[in-house]
Write a structure and sequence with these properties.
This protein is of the alpha+beta class. The chain has two domains: 37 residues; 195 residues, Muramoyl-pentapeptide Carboxypeptidase, domain 2 (2-Layer Sandwich), CATH 3.30.1380. The protein has six helices and eleven strands. Strands 5, 6, 7, 8, 9, 10 and 11 form a seven-stranded mixed sheet that branches. Strands 1-2 form a two-stranded antiparallel ribbon. A two-stranded antiparallel ribbon has the order 3-4. A hairpin with a 4-residue loop joins β7 and β8. α4 runs antiparallel to α6. The chain is globular and about 80 Å long. Bound molecules: zinc ion.
Length: 241
């Protein structure tokens, strides 16, 4: 049977190739306008933390690990209050990027971290912690307790292992949470079990995996029994344990 690519319909020549091209062109135009309305799914659109989380959000965040000016531009564009502190340190503990969030409920203080860690913290609070606090406790988070961001040391304090992400404050260790209704949640005391506090902690860990490149919890090893370790290590896309 002979394949015909065109045939006459009345006065018009009906060419299948033209119809296919028109369909493809229509899909491209439609897809572009859809992406323009959904920048969170558009890998080329600048990251804005006011947009909801989308397919491209984490990839765009990970790309900021090598670009401090672009990272700070995201905070500015998103109207997130922050301060830029002067670089300090030497060698492996040199900190060129010291970004301090202005209104984050960290306790006992708000340490300067790298900018990508600060953005991941913002996304974690907005997309995971706040909805979880509302869903599980019907409350709001008033305090996020931590063990610090910066520590000039190698991993696990060893003499000759690889340097910790804490050496440049590209990491943060979270130990617990306080809710507005007085509920206190501790990683050390509440990780195990089936209750609401354990559920909160496990889901908080899982949600962090969509923002940080490394997430280590008590499930990983005994060294993390009392805290969740988050960092923005540039070597991988996601480690979630
Ligand atoms: Zn840590």
């Amino acid at each position: 049977m002979k394949l015909t690519l065109s045939r006459h319909i009345g006065k018009f020549i009906f060419d299948r190739r033209i119809v296919i091209l028109l369909i493809i062109a229509g899909l491209l135009v439609g897809g572009r306008s859809w992406l323009a309305e959904h920048p969170q799914h558009d890998p080329w659109a600048a990251l804005d933390l006011n947009d909801p989380k989308g397919w491209a959000t984490q990839r765009k965040l990970l790309a900021l690990r090598d670009d401090v000016p672009a990272c700070r531009a995201v905070l500015t564009r998103s109207n997130v209050a922050f301060a830029v502190l002067d670089p300090v340190g030497e060698g492996e503990c040199r900190r060129d990027d010291r970004t301090q969030l202005g209104a984050y409920p960290l306790s006992p203080d708000t340490p300067a971290t790298t900018c990508p860690v600060a953005i991941a913290m913002e996304l974690w609070k907005r997309d995971t912690l706040n909805p979880l606090a509302q869903e599980i406790f019907g409350s709001k988070i008033t305090r996020i307790e931590h063990l610090g961001a910066y520590s000039c040391r190698r991993m696990y304090g060893s003499e000759d292992g690889p340097w910790s992400e804490h050496a440049t404050a590209n990491a943060l260790d979270i130990t617990g949470f306080m809710m507005a209704d007085g509920t206190r949640i501790s990683v050390l005391n509440d990780w195990k079990g089936e209750g609401p506090r354990a559920r909160f902690l496990h889901q908080a860990r899982d949600g962090a995996c969509g923002a940080f490149s490394t997430v280590l919890s008590p499930d990983y090893n005994a060294a993390h029994a009392d805290h969740l370790h988050f960092d923005m290590d540039g070597r991988w896309i996601s480690v979630c344990r």
